[in-house]
Amino acid sequence: MKLDILAFGAHPDDVELSCSGTIINEIKKGKLAGIVDLTRGELGTRGTAAIRDEEAAKAATIMGLSVRENLNMADGFFELSEANKLAVVKMIRKYRPEVVFANAFDDRHPDHGRGSKMVSDACFLSGLVKVETILNNEKQTAWRPKVIYHYIQDRYFKPDFIVDISDSMDQRILALKSICIPIL
Ligand SMILES: [Zn+2]
Fold first, then answer.
1. What is the number of domains present in the chain?
2. How far is ligand 1, taken at its centre, from the CA of residue 27, in Å?
3. How far is the centre of ligand 1, averaged over its atoms, from the C-alpha of 68 (Å)?
4. From ligand 1's centre to the CA of 175, what distance in Å?
5. By CB neighbour count within 10 A (0-12 exposed, 13-18 middle, 19+ buried), where does 39 fall?
6. Dist. CA 148 → ligand 1 center (Å)
7. What distance in angstroms lies between residue 2's CA and the mean position of ligand 1's atoms?
8. Residue 141 has pLDDT above 90, yes or no
9. Domain with 76 in it
């Protein structure tokens, strides 16, 4: 399945908290969107990884996502390793999005900055034909998204553009209600 938008979050609530309104806007226009979470958020103060899986699935349904996957990296401790970058490359090549959303460059939670760098690097690497990846026994083809947008979460930074999500606000609030309000 080819997606228009693929949003990555270090934790399974980053995307909902930061840019779910924008994604819902685009889905309403007929675009196909998905979320890939890097970790299961197992270090979150409230709840467990299993609860977060359920919440993430619920939020995905409310938002109208076509797919939601989790790469099961170590919450709090994942590294910018070759293996982790290739895991992200595989997702980019699997869904061939035009637009990628990623965490903020620098944020309160250190995973957000590292996640941001991981996804940016992977978007570049994914376009290199000599970076070989295999998924389900099939060699993947290179794919580079047209653009990466970094969303604001905890720390403010001056946005390059803003999106009017008034028409998607109710749906966004429903999606947020289905996830834990995090204390990270
Ligand atoms: Zn987070």
1. 1
2. 23
3. 16
4. 16
5. buried
6. 18
7. 26
8. yes
9. 5-177
Residues 49-92 pLDDT 10s: 999 999 999 999 999 999 999 999 999 999 999 999 999 999 99
Question: How many angstroms is it from 153 CA to the middle of ligand 1?
Answer: 8
Whether 12 contacts 63, CB under 8 Å: no
8 Å CB contact between 85 and 133: no
State the pLDDT at residue 8.
Answer: 98
For residue 103, give both structure tokens.
Answer: 């965490």
The reply to whether 184 falls in a domain is no
Distance 102 CA to ligand 1 centre (A): 11
Residue 88 lies inside a defined structural domain of this protein: yes
92 within a domain of the structure (yes/no):
yes
pTM greater than the 0.85 cutoff: yes
CATH of the domain at 71: 3.40.50.10320
CA of 37 to the centre of ligand 1 (A): 10
Using the mean position of ligand 1's atoms as its centre, give its distance from the Cα of residue 174 in Å: 19
Q: Which residue type, as a one-letter code, is found at position 164? A: D
Q: What is the pLDDT of residue 126?
A: 98
| Residue 66 resides in a domain | yes
The torsion angles phi and psi of 183, rounded to 5 degrees, stand at -115, 100
State whether residue 109 is helix, strand or coil. Answer: coil
In the reported structure, the alpha carbon of residue 126 is separated from the centroid of ligand 1 by a whole-number distance in angstroms of: 24
